[in-house]
Amino acid sequence: MEWLYILMPIAGVKIFWPGLIILGVGVGIIGGFFGMGGAWMVTPGLNILGFPMAFAIGTDIAHMAGKSLIATMRHGKFGNVDYKLGLIMIVGTVGGFEVGAQMVMWLERVGSVEKVVRYIYLVLLFLIAWMVFHDVNKRRQKERAAKAAGKEVDALATGIEWHKTLHKIKIPPMVHLEAAGIYCSAWLPIGVSFLTGWLAGILGIGGGLIRMPALIYLVGCPTHVAVGTDLFEVMISGLYGAASYTFKGRTELVAAIIMLCGASIGAQVGTVATKYIKGYGIRIAFGLAVIGCAVSIAMKMIGSNFKQLNYAMDVASTVLILGLVAGMSLYIFVKMIQGAKQELSTRKPA
């Protein structure tokens, strides 16, 4: 089965190339749908396939920029991108990213990058999953209470409403974000983008893993606007990040190109799917995907700590991450087809 493996010339490792294709196409669909570039799956996925962590981060960021550009263009046509908000967030993203990238270089020198990055990933994934499902639960409680009172809950209302408290902070300059329907201090999106940029530099996730939920729960964006605006920001931070990691010699361009070819097609599918799956449908699917990704990382960590389980955990985590990407992509694709058929049927004359 030697033909199924290809040598990565910069990283110096042999990689299961069908896994790169599955990651590229699947993550393109997932990234276009969730608005996160899908990089939160790619970095651990590349690491599980055999890339050293620093190369997994750099390669992930390189392929992310081009894919996010394609998805952003599609979301822009649907009116899902708040360009003003995205441009404001660049200020914090660039600064935070460089701080995170320098931390990775330091961790690599002291030999702790693998362990530290995996632990941060694990904690962050479970925290995001809790936040999403806590929000869904609180939203359902509001719906039940409103139904009992003979009323209806606002379609744009969320379960978690942290953004309402943050909007009370009136530190100048104040900005009006028309596409998102928000009026807030400019320092709110700048602060959020610095935090997500810092995590992007450390984890190679473009910041999207926390930026999309942060835009919803902290800034107050509607879900579909958060998706499109996040992809716009991922595109910009990805271009900067790709240049930064390539300069540091931690980008495997062969793998990035293989994944980008598939991702450019998948991103189109995922973006169109957001037209038919709105609001909490996106959030629930996102939460389930995050849990699956966290479990795969935990399995990889178990294998590294217990040598007798190392091979079994490696195989199981690889199957899980690739199966998760493939399964979630299929779900999104099927929902898109169903939505498109329903839309076409309603357009037919009686």
Can you walk me through this structure?
With 350 residues, the chain is mainly α. It has one domain. It has helices at residues 17-34, 39-49, 53-77, 83-109, 113-148, 162-166, 187-203, 208-219, 223-247, 253-273, 280-305, 310-347, and strands at 5-8, 13-16, 174-177, 182-185. It has a two-stranded antiparallel ribbon with strand order 1-2. Strands 3-4 form a two-stranded antiparallel sheet. Helix 1 runs antiparallel to helix 2 (39-49). The mean pLDDT is 78.
Mean pLDDT: 78
What is the number of beta strands? Answer: 4
Domain tally: 1
Taken in chain order, the helices and strands follow as: EEHHHHHHEEHHHHHH
Structural class, by secondary structure, is mainly alpha
If helices are DSSP runs of H or I spanning 4 or more residues, what is the number of helices?
A: 12
What overall form do the CA principal axes indicate? globular
Q: How many whole angstroms does the radius of gyration measure?
A: 20 Å
Residues in helix, %: over 70%
Largest sheet, if any? 2 strands, antiparallel
- Major beta sheet, strand line-up: 1-2
- Kindly estimate the percentage of residues that lie in beta strands according to DSSP: under 5%
Termini separation comes to 57 Å
